[in-house]
Amino acid sequence: MLLARTAEARRLLATLIGSLAVLMWALLALFTTWANGLPPFQLAALCFSIAAAVGLAILALRGPGSFRCLQRQPWQAWAIGTLGLFGCHVFYFLALGNAPAVEASLLTYLWPLLTLLFSAFLPGERLRWFHLASVLLGLIGAGFLVTGGRGFDFEACFVLGYLAALGCALTWSFYSIMNRRFGTVPTRAVTGFCTGAAALGFVCHFLFETWVAPNPCQWTAILLLGLGPVGLAFFVWDFGTKHGDIQALAAFAYAAPLLSTAMLIALGQGEAGWHIALACALIVGGALLGSIDLVRRQRLCATQPIGRNDARG
């Protein structure tokens, strides 16, 4: 029983660590507004470069042997990690460039729901009614945030953007699920994935864009993005999806648009309204509902008596 308690405690800790990514993604919109004017592939390449540089510096401090983790991983892990990080951004940029931001954003917010659905195919995971209900509540709440409670219209002329938004949601949900499949790949290997994503970003930039020299404000945004939402967030999300409760994380992911909106309002870049309060209630309620299993397991372990053999360890 002591081992069960220890395993559940580790699972809870990994889930909490993974949830830090959602908090950092809440700053993505704010920091991105500070970087307005930079080509998207250039911005992605620079942000991933900062994330990779920090990761490589940490590996260097831990000794030359730390770099072996980048050499020993299977090619499938490299492909999923690099293409997952980079591909998600490619689809996101295409979506915003070829469809109205409201509809495109709402479609990209399907990724927590898709992650939850795909998680049913993972070993040891089971999809329950409250998992689906929690993410549907989050999706509805995100819809109120994105549309401002005014509704939206899908037009055939924006089909490329809509498909790209769906591609973004599918890419990130697939990446999140496959992380569990490659659970033996250490989180520090994300450094290599960021390096690969930065390289792909520069290739796409030089093929399709013209370099724009960032001003001081844009460099600040690049640094903050590379350290947080497009940097450390990937490391903690990797750890959380591999070792934590991926279904609870999927439910909590809808807190990102809520926190992002609240941040923009606090800084005078948005206006509060009834739809914000309603979205808050739906998203918070959905997150609590999606965490039922995690709370239930913690209570079960806490109430179970420790046997004599368990007490001895």
Number of helices: 16
Q: Which ranges are low-confidence, i.e. pLDDT below 50, for 5 or more consecutive residues?
A: 308-313
The separation of the N and C termini measures: 10 Å
Mean of the pLDDT scores?
Answer: 80
Q: Would you count the extended β strands for me? A: 0
H and E order: HHHHHHHHHHHHHHHH
SS class: mainly alpha
- How many domains? The number is 1
Q: Largest sheet, if any?
A: none
Q: How much beta, percentage-wise?
A: under 5%
- The helicity comes to over 70%
Global Rg:
20 Å
Backbone shape: globular
List the helices and strands and how they pair.
Layout: H1 2-25, H2 28-34, H3 40-61, H4 68-71, H5 75-98, H6 101-108, H7 111-119, H8 129-147, H9 159-181, H10 190-208, H11 216-243, H12 246-252, H13 255-266, H14 274-290, H15 292-303, H16 308-312
Helix pairs in contact: 1-11, 1-12, 1-13, 1-15, 2-11, 3-10, 3-11, 5-6, 5-9, 5-10, 6-8, 6-9, 7-8, 7-9, 7-12, 8-12, 8-13, 8-14, 9-11, 12-14, 13-14
